[in-house]
Amino acid sequence: MKLQSRLVMGFLIATCLTGAVATVVGITTINKSTLDEVQRKVQQDINTAKLIYRHALERLEYQLEFIYLRSPLQEAILNNDPGALSGLEGLIRTGTHYFDDRRALDMLTLVDANGRVIYRVANPEAKGDVILWDPVVRKCLYEKKPQASAVVMSLETIKDQNPRLASRVLIPIVKTPQSVEVRETTLSQGMVLRAAYPIFLKDGTLLGALIGGILLNRDYNIVDTIKETVYQHETYRGRDIGFATIFLGGVRVSTNVINADQQRAIGTIVSKEVYDQVITRGEDWIGRAFVVNDWYISSYTPIYDIDRNIIGMLYTGILEAKYRDIKLNTMWLFLGITSLGMVVAFFISFRLGQSIIRRIRILKQATEAISSGNLEYQLPPGRSSGFDMLDEAFNNMARSLKDRDDRLQKAFHRITRTERLASLGQMAAGVAHEINNPLGGILLYSNLVLEEMENDHPCKGNLEKIIYQTNRCKKIVQNLLDFARTPSGDMRPISINDVITTSLNLVKDQSMFLGITVKHDLSPQLPLIMGDSSRLEEVFLNLFINASDAMEGRGVLTISTWLSSTNAVKVSISDTGKGIDRLYLPHIFEPFFTTKDPGQGTGLGLSITYGIIQKHNGFIDVDSEPGKGTTFIITLPVYLGSEDKPGMKSSDAIQGAEIG
Ligand code: ADP
């Protein structure tokens, strides 16, 4: 469980970190690119607004030129009689409020070359005064060129020009905590677009000028044109997205920003921050700004009069909410993806952890099984566990452990058997040796007595039996001595195949072999071995006779020879006889062990065989399946062909040869 939670934690931390970094980087990038984009747009918007504002000034100029071309202005100046100009009254905007007549003017004045008023179209009674205080008029008359600019005019001056404008000029001032400080409670100045057009005689003498004016207070032509051109009625969540404003100083005199009462926010004041930067220092402002009741990405630019004094500002702004929402949505999206990634990572890691732990448990069970001695244990193949390599390594380990264990067991059995047989052999040889001489004496004296005995002596039969049985004893003793005896010393390089063939020839025609099929598969390229052929013949005769006994005259005897991978000569003798009981198997090489009826077997055959093979530095193994047959396998070291001489001891000859 601990491993699993660590895996899950690891996965989660990795996804969490990646997700967090991706979110932060993503949000920062999007933030920056959105901000850049919006600021670029706002910059474009303010440039468009400036164009529209300049266009309004130019249009005023064209209007004056048009009037100049169509009206008898020269005569009126020359005769000081404006009577002929009464038709111009139709150009003056009537009504006290803004209405959508874009050609209408608020002021139209005719002056002579000295700036003296000849005719005020909107106020014909007021004339004769000199209006050189107006910088636009002054510049026009001095430079004899058309001029246009915004100017600030006091309420009184404006009233002189057109008495009906008073109500448009007066704007109640609305202060907010952020706004710049303003002393007045009502605005009593107007921002006026002024243009002056010079009037000449045909000879080029300056006669005077025609002066027009449009009061921007509560005139929404320019701001609404900007809004339509730039924002094209675009809305966001039911609200217009962009707005434009003209400020006189810091006061909104013309705007389409809407206040809480759904009215144009006329009279509201700009924030101190913006005021200081734009009006006081004359720099553009681009950035977030709180406008009336919401945050806008805003742009402010100063409005200059003809003498380059800053008299107000032009403003465009986009509702920040849209971009704020884009930002928020992106953030949520990123967070969502990250969380989803984490959930997926959690499940994957959980499942992965489970499968790993399941496999580890199986491995643990397997290890326990092996340590408790079950070396046969093999891991079941796991379905796409990803542990194949480990499984394979484990199974290989188990197999090689089993292999080694088997070999150890075999070696152990062989050693214990060898030791047991060696001590038995020693004892038997000792006993045989002790008995051999007395037996010789018994035989000698018995024979002497028999020779002297009359043929019809009643004891003669018994004496002959004594001699017969004593001879049998002598034979047994001889066999026992053979079992312990070192090969006679007649050791020479011989072919084991030849020894086997000779032994076979001795028995195969005997009656006991008549019903037995003999098969042999003797390897022709077998190296020689160092051995005593007569003693080895004895070994094979013993084994053949035992096999024939076990098959009870009917079956197959198979003899094969080959060179083993460990470079030893191997001989196998297999029969299809009754086999050896598992209980007897460990004892068959012991002297006197026999399962045959008394008088049938002495139980010495295999022990002598064992002794002879042992003396050849080889060994003999048996494998038997009761009811099916028995196989004896003899392993003998190869003769290496050193300076062996006939009669040399085999142990010298096989130095370095592998026996096992
Ligand atoms: P003996 O042949 O005199 O009994 P051995 O030492 O030759 O003595 O054999 C010992 C015992 O091993 C036999 O009595 C028999 O039970 C068993 N034995 C030997 N060879 C075979 C064989 N080929 N098939 C079955 N049993 C065998």
TrEMBL record:
Record's catalysed reaction(s): ATP + protein L-histidine = ADP + protein N-phospho-L-histidine
Q: Name one GO cellular component term.
A: plasma membrane
Q: Name one Pfam family in it.
A: HATPase_c
Q: How does it sit in the membrane?
A: Multi-pass membrane protein
What main location does UniProt list? membrane
Residue stretches making up the HAMP domain = 354-406
The enzyme's E.C. designation: 2.7.13.3
- Which PROSITE patterns is this protein grouped with? HAMP, HIS_KIN
Where in or outside the cell it occurs: the entry states:
Cell membrane
In this protein, which residues make up the domain named Histidine kinase?
A: 430-640
- SMART domains linked to this entry: HAMP, HATPase_c, HisKA
Question: What keywords are assigned to this protein?
Answer: ATP-binding, Cell membrane, Kinase, Membrane, Nucleotide-binding, Phosphoprotein, Transferase, Transmembrane, Transmembrane helix, Two-component regulatory system
Query: Gene3D superfamilies in the record, alphabetically?
Result: 1.10.287.130, 6.10.340.10, Histidine kinase-like ATPase, C-terminal domain
Which terms does the record give in the GO molecular function aspect? Answer: ATP binding; phosphorelay sensor kinase activity
Looking up CDD domains in the UniProt record yields: HAMP, HisKA
Transmembrane intervals: 331-352
Q: What is this protein identified as?
A: histidine kinase
Give the taxonomic lineage as stored in the record: unclassified sequences, metagenomes, ecological metagenomes
Name of the gene encoding the protein in the UniProt record: zraS
